[in-house]
Structures are given as structure tokens and as C-alpha cells.
Write a structure and sequence with these properties.
This protein has a 4-stranded antiparallel β-sheet with strand order 1-2-4-3. It has 3 helices and 4 strands, in the order αββααββ. It is of the alpha+beta class and about 80 residues long. Helices cover about 25% and strands about 25% of the residues.
């Protein structure tokens, strides 16, 4: 999936988090249009078809603009976690 993302226009970063009871990921894009197009394109891939069973029923994604961070690195204004 990361290799696929790196070839998408507007892709900035991918992060994967492991909690005590679940996993979550974060995908950063240049803007909301790139995020929406990336998700739409991803859902048509063989990768998505193999991964979709890992997503809990009723899960919804979040899209928003970063307004604060304690990270020193330059970050994306729009984040869109995977499906």
C-alpha cells in the first residue's frame, strides 16, 4: 500500500499506529481534493479488496485540517485515515 501511495499525486506521509486493542493509520495529503481522490482510487485496487475485511463494521474515516501540532516537521494540512 505504501508503494502505491508514494505514486499518488498529493501524497505526503503515511503512519501506522498500534494500540493495546486496535490499529489505526493516518495518511497525509497536500489538500482535501487529493485526499478524496486518493481514497476513491484506492477503493478500486486489489490491495483494498485484500484489506477491506480488516476494517471493523461501522468504521468511518475522518478528514480535517491540522490546526495545532507539537511536531517540528512540516506536516500536511489535510489528513485522511484509510477506510
Amino acid at each position: 500500500m505504501i508503494a502505491w501511495l508514494k505514486n499518488k499525486s498529493g501524497f505526503i506521509a503515511y503512519e501506522l499506529y498500534e494500540g493495546s486493542e486496535c490499529w489505526s493509520d493516518r495518511i497525509a495529503w497536500e489538500n482535501q481534493e487529493f485526499a478524496q481522490n486518493g481514497l476513491k482510487d484506492f477503493l478500486t485496487t486489489a490491495i483494498a479488496k485484500k484489506m477491506i475485511h480488516l476494517v471493523e463494521d461501522g468504521y468511518s474515516s475522518f478528514s480535517g485540517q491540522k490546526i495545532a501540532s507539537n511536531q517540528s516537521e512540516e506536516s500536511a494540512p489535510y489528513d485522511h485515515p484509510r477506510i
